[in-house]
Automatic annotation (TrEMBL):
It comes from the Bacteria. The keyword Cell wall biogenesis/degradation does not apply. Its main location: membrane. GO terms for molecular function: ABC-type oligopeptide transporter activity; ATP binding; ATP hydrolysis activity. Residues 19-302 form the ABC transmembrane type-1 domain. This is Thiol reductant ABC exporter subunit CydC. One of its GO terms (cellular component) is plasma membrane. The keyword Nucleotide-binding applies. PROSITE patterns: ABC_TM1F, ABC_TRANSPORTER_1, ABC_TRANSPORTER_2. One of its GO terms (biological process) is glutathione transmembrane transport.
Amino acid sequence: MRIFLRLWRLLAPYRGFIFLATILGALTVGSNIGLLAVSALLISRAALHPPILDLMTLIVGVRFFGISRAVFRYLERYFTHDVTFRILSQIRVWFYRKLEPLAPAHLMDYGSGELLSRIVGDVDTLKFFYLRVLAPPLVAFMVLLGVFLFLAWFHLQAALVVLFFFLLAAVGIPLGIRSLSRGIGRRMVEVKGALNVLLVDSIRGMTEITAFGQGWRQQVKIEGLSRELIGLQGRVAGFTGLSGALVMLTMNLALWCVLVLTIPLVAGGKLDGIYLAMLALGAMGSFEAVLPLPLVYQHMEESMEAARRLFEITDTKPVVQDRAGHWLIPHRYDLEVKGLRFRYRENDSWVLDGLDFVLPQGGRLAIVGPSGAGKSTFVHLLLRFWEYEEGSITLGNHEIRAYSPETLRQLMGVVTQQTHIFNATIGENLLLAKPGASPEELVDAIRKAQLYDFIQSLPHGYDTYVGEEGLKLSGGQRQRLAIARVLLKNAPILILDEATVGLDPVTEKEVMGTIYGLMEGRTTLVITHRLTGLEVMDQILFLEGGKVVEQGTHETLLAQKGLYYKMWELQHQVLVEKT
Ligand code: ADP
C-alpha cells in the first residue's frame, strides 16, 4: 500500500489528465450501453408499425450514440496513451536524477545488466500502472453507478440483480483469479530482470565466452530462463482466457435474470413490453467495463514489484550528500592533504591511513606504489565520489566539501586507464567535454593531443563511429581522445590515473610525450604503479598500505635505494628484457 501511495504521489502532475482520460473511458462505455439500449428500444417500437415520425427521436439517438462511441473511444485512446507516455518519461527522468548522485559508490553493487533491466524493464512495466491498474476500476465504478440508477428507475429488483452480478464479475472473479495466479506477476518481473542481466553479461563477455568454449553453458541458462518466462506468460494467458469466459458467463446470467424478473411484469401489464429488450441489453452492455478488471490484481502485483525495485535504488542515500546552501568558488588551486584517513566500510581496515602532502598550484606530484596501495581511492575522494572521515583535503585554502561536487569536477581533467569512449562519432566523443566548442578549439585540442593526422586520414573524419567502448580505435588513440577531451575542458587541475597502463612501451612513450604537453600550466597529480617518465615530477610519494613510506624526487628516491628504487629497478629490468 505504501508503494502504491508513493507511486500515486509520483503521478501528481498528471492527475488532471488521468481524471480526464478516465471520464472519457466511462463515456465510451456509456455510449456503447446507450447505443445498445436505444437500438433495442427502436427495434421494439418499430415492430409495432408506428408512424415514422414517432421513431425520429430514437433514430437520432442511435446515430448520436453510434458517433459518440467512436469519438469518445478515439479521445479516450488519445488521452490514455498521451498520459501513459508522459508518466513514463516522468518516471524515467525522476529515476535517472536519483541514480546519478549514486554513481559510482552505490552502483557498484548492481551490475550494468541489472541497472539496465531496472531503467528499461521496470520503468516500462509501470506504464501499466495507470492503463491497467488505476483506470479500469474507476471506469467500472462510474459505469456501474450510471447503469444502476438507470435500471433502478424502471425496476429496483432488476437493478439490484445487475449490481450483484456486476460486483461478482468486478470483485469476485478477480479475487478468485488472484488467488490462483498469486506470485506470477512478481516472478515474471524477477525472471525478466534475470534474463536481461544474463543477456547483457553474455553480450559484453562474448569474446571470453567464445574463447573458453562456454557458449553452450550460457545458452542453456538463457534457454532455461526463457522457458520459465514463456511458461509464466502462458499461465497469464490462461488466466486471461478463464477470466474472460467467467465474465461472459456472469454477463449472460445477469441478462437472463433481468429477463426472468421483467417478463412477468410485462405479462402483468406493469411494464411496457417495448422496454424489455432495452433493459436487458443495457445491463449486458455495462459488462464491457468489467472485462479488464480480473487482470487488475496481476498487473498491480507486477507494477508494485517493479516500483519496489526502483524505490530500492532511489531510496539509497548518496555517499556524498549535496548540502543545500551557499557553495564557494575556488580561486586558487593549491591542494593540501592533512592526516587523511579513509575506509570503504566501517570496521574494514584503513585504505588510506594518514595521508599528508602539499601540491602547490601549477606543481606536479606523483603518487606511486604497488597495486592496492590506495592510490585510486585518493582520486575518488578528490572527485567526491566517496566521503572521507578523518583529516582534510583543502583546495585553495577551503575544504573541498565547501565546493559543490559539480564545480569541483568541472575543475578537474581526468585521464584514466579505462577512459569511457561512447559508441558515437569521434566528434561527439570530443564534444562531451565541451558541448559548445568552436571548430577552432576542436582542431587545437586534437592537434595538441596528436590526433589531427589520424582524424584527417579517416574517410569520414570527425563523423567516424568508434564502436562500443571505442573498439575501433587503438589503445593509444583512445588515450589521445581522452587527452583531447581534457584539453577541450581546459581544467586547471589534471589527474592522470594510470593513464598509460595497458599501452605497449612505444605507444606509452608517445602518449607520455603528449601528456607532458598537457601538464603545462596545470596543477598535476599523477597516479601510477609504472615508474616511467617521473623525472619531470616535483615530488613523488611512495604509498604502501595507505601510508606514505617514501617521499622525494625521482633522483633522491633512486639515491635512497629504498622501495622506489627496488620497484624501478624491477620494472626497468623487465622493460629492458621486453625491448
Ligand atoms: P590502487 O589504486 O593503489 O591499486 P585502490 O585505491 O584501487 O588501489 O584500492 C585500495 C584498496 O581498497 C584495495 O584493497 C581495494 O580492494 C579496496 N577497494 C577499492 N575500491 C573499493 C570499493 N569500492 N569497495 C571496497 N573496497 C575497495
